[in-house]
Amino acid sequence: MQLLVVGAGEMGRWFARQGGADTVAFADRDPATAHEAATAADDARVVELDTDETFDVVCLAVPMSAVPDAIAEHAGRATEAVVDVSGEMRDSVAALRTHAEGCERASFHPLFSAANAPGNVPVVVDRGGATVDRIRAALDAAGNEVFETSPSTHDRAMETVQAKAHTAVLAYALTAEEIDPRFHTSLSEPLSELVDGTLGNTPEVYAEIQDRFEGASSVADAARRIAEADRDAFVELYASVDDTGRSRQRGRDPTADEGAHE
Predict the structure, then answer these.
(1) pLDDT tens for residues 97-139?
(2) Angle of helix 31-40 relative to helix 10-18, nearest 10 degrees?
(3) Where are the beta strands (DSSP E) in the chain?
């Protein structure tokens, strides 16, 4: 399988390693980045962004906001399948459907940084076939858990696991003061570790997530309710989270069992 990866950054390189390709070509708006990626990979080379070559598979590994235009520009270079690993499904799948009509089409979202691979990879398969099946099998064989979803389900989940989570962690980072580590509690210590795991990455990636997915304002509203609550109101808020929050964290409807107890 001949693969063209457009976007030679972290996730483009990850897909080149784990996507089941026999040979890989990298294209990037920064030629130095493409050359660096090709040098680090086996059976890889660099092509120009406007290359006339065709490939079995074209993978778009560019920022979310650039995916629709990138698909429109590069989908015609694929003979079998066009995929992306952008992290957003609604606009990506719509662009795939419009510009890769005759090809297999799938949108993958690795829910981890490449340094933390393998992990969970939701996928929307808009038009399946042998090539997409091969890619999925290769990702599974590399230890990832690939599972199917829909654009709306995926993007709604990202509001919680990305936009809301990042807002909460960064808000704590902005307000927490430096302390003697011996003062940490069983709650504050892992929260501080989350801050350490969030910082030091590429801020533009986080900015794209906040721009694309809603959720930040709801976290801010909740924090305001907590900050302004008196004793009784705080107890009520805590109880409401205790009743429903833990069930939501486990991925189940807190009212699902009500009928069994009637």
Answers:
(1) 999 999 999 999 999 988 889 999 999 999 999 999 999 999 9
(2) 30
(3) 2-6, 23-27, 44-46, 55-60, 78-84, 104-108, 120-127, 145-148
CA distances from 171 to 60, 168, 176, 179, 198 (A): 32, 5, 9, 17, 12
- SS3 state of residue 238: helix
Question: Is the per-residue pLDDT at 252 higher than 60?
Answer: no
Three-state DSSP state, 235: helix
Q: Scanning the structure block, which residue is given the tokens 């009500």? A: 258
| DSSP assignment string, 91-117 | HHHHHHHHH-TTSEEEEE--SS-GGG-
Kindly indicate the confidence band of residue 197, based on its pLDDT and cuts at 50, 70 and 90.
confident
Measured distance CA(122)–CA(9) in Å, rounded = 20
User: What string of H, E and C letters represents the secondary structure of 151-166?
Assistant: HHHHHHHHHHHHHHHH
pLDDT tens digits, 144-194 = 999 999 999 999 999 999 999 999 999 999 999 999 999 999 999 999 999
Q: How confident is the model at residue 202 (pLDDT cuts 50, 70, 90)?
A: confident
Q: How far apart are CA 196 and CA 173, in angstroms?
A: 9
The total number of residues shown for the chain amounts to 262
Structure tokens at 75: 């989908």
